[in-house]
Amino acid sequence: xxxxxxxxxxxxxxxxxxxxxxxxxxxxxxxxxxxxxxxxxxxxxxxxxxxxxxxxxxxxxxxxxxxxxxxxxxxxxxxxxxxxxxxxxxxxxxxxxxxxxxxxxxxxxxxxxxxxxxxxxxxxxxxxxxxxxxxxxxxxxxxxxxxxxxxxxxxxxxxxxxxxxxxxxxxxxxxxxxxxxxxxxxxxxxxxxxxxxxxxxxxxxxxxxxxxxxxxxxxxxxxxxxxxxxxxxxxxxxxxxxxxxxxxxxxxxxxxxxxxxxxxxxxxxxxxxxxxxxxxxxxxxxxxxxxxxxxxxxxxxxxxxxxxxxxxxxxxxxxxxxxxxxxxxxxxxxxxxxxxxxxxxxxxxxxxxxxxxxxxxxxxxxxxxxxxxxxxxxxxxxxxxxxxxxxxxxxxxxxxxxxxxxxxxxxxxxxxxxxxxxxxxxxxxxxxxxxxxxxxxxxxxxxxxxxxxxxxxxxxxxxxxxxxxxxxxxxxxxxxxxxxxxxxxxxxxxxxxxxxxxxxxxxxxxxxxxxxxxxxxxxxxxxxxxxxxxxxxxxxxxxxxxxxxxxxxxxxxxxxxxxxxxxxxxxxxxxxxxxxxxxxxxxxxxxxxxxxxxxxxxxxxxxxxxxxxxxxxxxxxxxxxxxxxxxxxxxxxxxxxxxxxxxxxxxxxxxxxxxxxxxxxxxxxxxxxxxxxxxxxxxxxxxxxxxxxxxxxxxxxxxxxxxxxxxxxxxxxxxxxxxxxxxxxxxxxxxxxxxxxxxxxxxxxxxxxxxxxxxxxxxxxxxxxxxxxxxxxxxxxxxxxxxxxxxxxxxxxxxxxxxxxxxxxxx
Length: 811
Fold this sequence. Notes:
Number of strands: 52
Shape: globular
Distance between the termini: 29 Å
Strand order of the largest sheet: 43-44-45-50-49-48-47-46
Number of domains: 6
Radius of gyration: 31 Å
Strand content: 25-35%
């Protein structure tokens, strides 16, 4: 895993949401013809968390800021919606009556529309993707009342409207959304346009730290966050620390041309004295590069370009303004002289600006209310153990300098060795210069023998017995969830559910499944795999007579795959750092475990996770090592796999299937490209507790795995096996035979008291001169006796011996 540095601390504060006194709105809703009160009408401030409903007397109350800039929306299924501007509704304080006009929608019509055929379902699927988006956010969103939708389709274009509020449950961010859809259009060319207004209602469980982290992560790269940051008059360095780099650009001949890099971003924003709002000035395009937000290098955001822009830039209506860069990029194009926004970063003159790229790609599932305020601290309800110590560390990494200083003083005055591990974790992630300086100073003062550097420090720490406190698991959950909210469950309340040291779990530089796994990948016949050379390395296996080959040149970019072979669901984990490919049958005692790449390492060996419980699993052991599955005696069966060449494998198994280059991802799948710098030297990318000099760090060793391999581990040098071709050994009470092909591929078999004298050109001969048949799964004697193949795999020496330090070696 290549390490990615992510900025996780906000170094600028934000202004308060205005000093004006709140205004309590009070009014009545009545029928325009009968003047009868209207109950159960929804009233809300557009795209905010502010809202209410009318009572049985049609009475409405809602408290808003006197500086509110969003419109007030009043909706009821039986009435035409009403949109009221701030300058009008801020006067509704004395119980005035507002008359609503009846519409033509009948309740029965809405109910009956719930019964739809396949054509309607296809339209709904397109609509849902366009409105909510795709990805993990959208997957946890559900429209509860799709029956209120109306679709019109003509010449491939789809138009959607709704006769009532859409009720949307967003479990990813913890909001229930009442959304008034004016219109959503999906043109035949794929461009999308929609208008609507929503009310965001906090769900009961929003104290869940995962949702808080998800909200904060989305907010920290939002347009509102950037605009609110600009109000603070930041320097260029301040903005970069927040994760933004700004450039003025022009669009010319199909490309964006930089014309100016603002050295003083504070000069871009000026107060609008007439309104109390703010003006943002820039030339044609303001390009924002989001540091720490990664997108596919070939991802393009298709947008509907107005006729004015088509003429100005000579582009098609459906135009990609993507950058082809891996860091996310957003672009603002202004039509008016300046962009006008309020103290929350909410744009007032929305018609004066268009957004492209990352911001344009965000859909409703990843949208926050305009009055959202980031919350970067935990409350007592959100932690489980040693709350005082946990809060001290939270304050140390927070934004309040006074609290940070007080936390530092507390740690110094109440020093404990249990503080070392969390301080080193902070040191690994923070880019806050103050935090780096004071933590290094504190460690030097309290632990003179330690080198206050993360990698040096943890290696020093690992040589001692664990000293971290009971709060450490919850702290680790809190700290690392700033990188990916999914990390929270790995550690939260799991301090006692572990078989490995928590301070030895190191972040590998990617989010959960950040190195994209291949799930049920496309396969080719051997004849179709023309992209492979005979010398290319493949990992081969045979299950129930069916042969599969997984080229190293592809797996090195994905490190994990799942597949179905006959009745077996398998997972192949490739730890590129430790040179290991191990294949597991994912079913154990009738339960199929859906595994993935956690983003963390243990002794430079990748840790897997399972989706059901978010437990962490050891790659070498095939067992859970952190989480609720620990202690349940789960150990996935390993399946024999061999490392060989494509030419050798195809020669033995001409009917083999092999991975296709069509993986759904754009990578340089040439042989030897992935991790070529890492493989070129004996240096390590991540620290380990010790180095055993009996072999070079990255020397390849062959690991047989009979039942008792953990208590009597054996590693055999691949160079030794390549020379010998035939090797007898014993692990515990199990005799084993290892045979090696001319390509260097080795296989291990469980034998009894048999002795063999040679293996050449596929012929295995025992000491009695009898020739045995060699297959992928068995050795068969002339009289039909069979010896079963054992699971085995290769590994780098340093990786194996750090997990099994008592390993016996043959070299």
